[in-house]
């Protein structure tokens, strides 16, 4: 009679430093002799299903990328409008300061008549 296969689980929370600690525990269910588990659930798909899944993932990624690019362009337009508005305010302020400077020059400079 063979012993049941033991499962090894990683416990990241009980780790000291960078090394995880492991605990050996008995499996929740014992498999009958001769039963082999599949390596992963994804291995049960046909090549056509895998290709369809890859196409679906690509389309989803492209759609998300389009949305992100659209949002990026919107934010950029908003930023440029804000900069243009700031430039307009600073131009008006600069014009007023130049006029004030000219006025002060006229007041402070000695009049030669």
TrEMBL record:
Keywords for the protein's UniProt record, in alphabetical order: Coiled coil, Nucleus
Alphabetical list of InterPro entries matching this protein: bZIP, bZIP_sf, Leuzip_CREB
Gene3D superfamilies attached to this UniProt entry: 1.20.5.170
Coiled coil: 80-107
Domain of life: Eukaryota
Chain ranges of the BZIP domain: 55-106
Name the record gives this protein: cAMP-responsive element modulator isoform X18
Species the sequence originates in: Ceratotherium simum simum (Southern white rhinoceros)
Annotated gene: LOC101406529
């Amino acid at each position: 009679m063979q012993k049941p296969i033991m499962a090894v689980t990683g416990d990241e929370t009980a780790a000291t430093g960078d090394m995880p600690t492991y605990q050996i525990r008995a499996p929740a269910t014992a498999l009958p002799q001769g039963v082999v588990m599949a390596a992963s659930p994804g291995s049960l798909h046909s090549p056509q299903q895998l290709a369809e899944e890859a196409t679906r993932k690509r389309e989803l990624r492209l759609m998300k990328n389009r949305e992100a690019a659209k949002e990026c362009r919107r934010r950029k337009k908003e930023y440029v409008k804000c900069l243009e508005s700031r430039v307009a305010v600073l131009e008006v302020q600069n014009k007023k300061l130049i006029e004030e400077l000219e006025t002060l020059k006229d007041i402070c400079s000695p009049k030669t008549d």
